[in-house]
Amino acid sequence: MDHKRITFLLALIWAVVAVLPLFFGGTNFIMHILIMCLIWSVVASCWDLIMGFAGIFSFGQVAFFVTGSYASAIISAQFGIPPIFAVFIAGGITAAIGILVGLPCLKLKGAYIALVTFAVHMILEPVLKGDIGRALGTGGSRGLLTIEPMHIFGYTFTTASPVPYFYLMLLVAVICSAIILVVIRSHWGTAFLALKDSQEFATCLGVSAFKYKLMVFALTSFLTGMMGGFYAHYVGMLSTRMLGIDLFVTLMVILVIGGVGKFPGAVIGAFITIAANELLSPLGPYRPITMGALVVILVLLLPDGVVGLFERLFSRKQHGITH
Amino acid sequence: MVIEIADVIISGLINGSVYALMAVGLTLIYGVSKAFNFAYGSFYSLGGYIAFLLFSLSFINNYFVVFLLAVPILLVFGYFVEKALVAPLRKRDDWEIKVMMITLGLALFLDNSFQVIFGSRMKSLPPFLEGGFEAGDFYLSHQDVGIFFLSIGGILLFRWFLNNTRTGMSVRAVAQNPAGAQIVGIPKEFVFAATFAISTVMVGMGGILLAQKYFITPMGGWDILVKAWVITAFGGMGSIKGGLYAAFIVGMLEAFVGWYFGMTWTLIVLFAVLLTTLAVRPQGLLGKWG
Amino acid sequence: MIELVDVNAFYQDFHVLKNVSLAVEKGQIAVMLGPNGHGKSTVLKSICGLVEKVSGVILFEGDTITGLGSEKLVDMGITYIAENRELFPQMSVLENLKLGAYSRSARAFEKENLEKVFDLFPRLRDRRSQLASTMSGGEARMLAIARGLMSNARFLAMDEPSLGLQPNLRDEVARIIKQINDQGITLLVVEQNIPQITELADTLYVLEEGSISFAGSKEDALGNDHLKEIFLGM
After folding, report:
1. Global pTM value
2. Is residue C233 situated within a structural domain?
3. Residue A71 lies in a domain
4. Strands (E), B21-162
5. Interface predicted TM-score (ipTM)
6. What integer is the mean pLDDT of C175-184?
7. Does A294 contact chain B (CB < 8 Å)?
8. Domain assignment of residue C55, given as a range
9. Which residues contact A212 (CB under 8 A, 6 or more apart)?
């Protein structure tokens, strides 16, 4: 999809989302879901950026999210820093960790990168639960139960009236997605595509693989960590259960539905997936089974997700007109 | 103290042998078709549950029959999964990511189906050999010895298959040069499906062999996937010899770290070793690029 | 024996072969010349089922074989010998040869063909246990041809068999091509302009920009000025 279309689609999506509270503002439950959609749309877009565009099989997204959420919570609790600043600092810390993780991955290929980043995910749980974690203030296996809610200029965002937080998150999501869009449209984006297609050739042309790979690690982990912070100060509590396989799978489903490398597919995917998740909850224990089966069917039938489907429909229409 | 260390070494060897079986399966698929099977852990549990089901049939009460039935079931299942889920994706772009996604969906489906069908309580299988060797305080169960020899036997059988059968040679051919294999008229699609099926048998057998010691749980496969993955990467993806060495090294390392520092440290140490190795040799111990 | 009628071939969206028509009579040697990158290999690969997007008609002894995969074609006696050789590096010479006889129709003749091949290439017999990756360029080229012969082929599509070889080895390649042809095998050889090989041709084709720009005998070629321009010293 060309850049103009992507921008248009993104603007359209946000415009639609922005008016949703007019219909659902009265139902806290739905607003809560929409806030989660906004948070996950950014996280998923970051994953799409690093995996779908830069071609790096990073499986550390959830780990970065959890790192950011814990970091923000701890910073605001232990250093008295207001949450609105804590989330950015948390983003920075996560970015630093992202670079540390990215460094060994520079020389690795494909599945090896997936393994190393997944390793970070696997190690995080014992670290957070264990002695190191407790010393840092993670609350060990109990987790953190009282996290300072977000407040700006004296106004406190609570879960009791979620609409304001929704708009805050919408603003954040729009900015983050704009950043990602700018990256894709810039020479970064071209460099990523070149690297993804053929690293050797691109490197010959002077594209510094190392620099761009590290940058994409830094950017995606910063944004993801920051969203983790926003999550923490909204939900008010954290536990290492977030590191279970569920969140990881949800992110993956979002990309399957939205389409990998088809920004802003991840945004559309987030809304559809989280909504579907809720709709299917009456199924109880059968829900994950259904999700699993859906993923299998969708990957086979809709290989490029919803966005890919639109693309195919549009291109057919175009051919119809010109012939 | 000596006995403790002996126990640790034996535990390392036995686990290592089963890990070897499973690691070879994973490296096989990757080496031949560059696919990554995220449902590998679920196939491990599948093996255990199949054995459990077979045992619950009153007329089956010995392992020989269970193995005899489980192997073809796993073989056919693996073959079918490859043909239906993996093969159609090969022509698409980003197919490696898509294969990961579809196998992840499959893992989700299987694991939760196990949960619904069998419940989340651990299931156990009866040991296939009773009793053991005793020498003072030292005890080595016949079961453990049996597991070791069965695993090694499985690997040797596989090696014989690779070197001495036509299909085995075609597998090696596709792994070494897919273009050459096509030129010579080897049906690549069949080889992909066959290797997937074989790897399913290997990891499923691992599930049966270890079921008596470590029990069968719906989500237990994830640890196995990660371990097999670590071992395969450590040994070099696509290298069977590498996988073998790595499996035993990891088995021993795990046993010693677990004994000396506690089980929670094993994963961290394993990853640390893996990372250091990859930093020096990005392709693993014996891996080759390409 | 092999006939192409208005064949078009594509790599992704790139149109490589444009309405190519040619015929190779049974028992003949046809040689195809032309500048690099203009589709010569693609012609061979299309015949041997190694190109995905092919349209038009390809006939083998009158039967349509367009779109068939390499497994079937090798079984029918049509084999491609790659310019890159595409050997199995970690296998011995003997194993490579045995794999050449993978198809069902070739299996029955494996022992026989092995002897034939060793007679044709005595050096390979000496090195039968050697790993393919350790062979020199010339030996690897011989192994690739030998492996192709193991398939009991009746038609061989050879892609630049003398590429990268020293002049004396080129003579040997030409000699081997003649010997193979004498045994009754039809050949379509793609080459740079190598006198020893073009000498052997019963029919000459020139492929430029994906289309046949010349088809005829050696004598016809000598009288063609355009060709003389492109290929000095024909």
Report:
1. 0.85
2. yes
3. yes
4. 132-135, 138-141
5. 0.87
6. 89
7. yes
8. 1-65+188-234
9. A54, A188, A191, A192, A195
